[in-house]
Backbone:
């Protein structure tokens, strides 16, 4: 067995992943805000899952909401948690005594959806996870795209409105995709939690429908730019806000197809299928890659 860990802004999710990619035991912990305490909590969760599954753990994969320098293993910065300048991989490897892989959480969600989820029939995909913020991951040529040092593919921080509202937490930009179509953005525009907006819109409330329509159109602006740059076979949309379905994705697809260059406007836009476990399962697949690399 291996363990996959997905660190989010409010909780850390862990899952034991078997060789056939199926999830076994799982558990969650609240996310501490301070850096080294957060890393310690990840170690605690792995230890708990190792005890619960009762079998040897061969490796651990960890997804962080962070920019990670893959050359050094250092977390350079994190947009929505207080984690920076820590060699998380080395700390966990010393504590747990097994190989540890580290990557951006949305990269690993994309990896999970590509191998065993909604993207498994497509070679190149772009995944967006729309929740409290917006994360993104790119699979190009069956490989995770990370950029030169590993800190690329921060798709949620692509600007879609140059003079838009300031972004969240540690991002100094304005009008990011995250700022315009995340759950936080929807709550800001509606004056109520995003979950309530989705519920009211599904019941036919015109004001709630208008808020989701606006968020969806900004999402479509982002999809058009990504389509023109990467020309993916499919876009995979996940995260809690994606539960709005066509109320969000309908306007997004319309905007995307009207803006992208015609040859790049043909990618399918599909909902993710792994749900909230996508990141942890992807982290488990990263752990299996480590096992296979030394086999």
Residues:
């Amino acid at each position: 067995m291996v363990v996959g860990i997905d660190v989010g802004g409010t909780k850390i999710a862990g899952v034991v992943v078997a060789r056939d990619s199926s999830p076994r035991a799982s558990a969650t912990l609240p996310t501490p805000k301070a850096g080294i305490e957060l890393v310690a909590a990840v170690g605690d969760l792995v230890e708990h899952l190792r005890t619960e599954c009762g079998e040897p753990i061969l490796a651990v994969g960890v997804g962080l909401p962070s920019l990670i320098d893959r050359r050094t293993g250092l977390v350079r910065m994190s947009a929505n948690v207080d984690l920076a300048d820590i060699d998380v991989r080395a700390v966990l490897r010393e504590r747990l005594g097994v190989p540890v892989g580290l990557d951006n959480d949305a990269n690993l969600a994309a990896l999970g959806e590509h191998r065993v989820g909604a993207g498994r029939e497509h070679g190149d995909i772009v995944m967006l996870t729309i929740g409290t913020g917006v994360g993104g991951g790119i699979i190009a040529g069956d490989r995770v795209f990370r950029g030169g040092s590993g800190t690329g593919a921060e798709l949620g921080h692509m600007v879609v409105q140059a003079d838009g509202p300031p972004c969240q937490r540690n991002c100094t930009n304005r009008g990011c995709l995250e700022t315009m179509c995340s759950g936080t953005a929807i709550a800001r525009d509606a004056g109520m939690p995003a979950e309530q907006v989705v519920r009211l819109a599904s019941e036919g409330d015109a004001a709630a429908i208008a808020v989701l329509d606006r968020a969806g159109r900004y999402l479509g602006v982002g999809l058009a730019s990504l389509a023109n740059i990467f020309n993916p076979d499919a876009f995979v949309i996940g995260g809690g806000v994606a539960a709005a379905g066509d109320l969000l994705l309908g306007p997004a697809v319309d905007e995307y197809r009207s803006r992208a260059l015609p040859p790049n406007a043909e990618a399918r836009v599909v909902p993710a299928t792994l749900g909230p476990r996508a990141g942890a399962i992807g982290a488990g697949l990263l752990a299996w890659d480590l096992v296979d690399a030394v086999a």
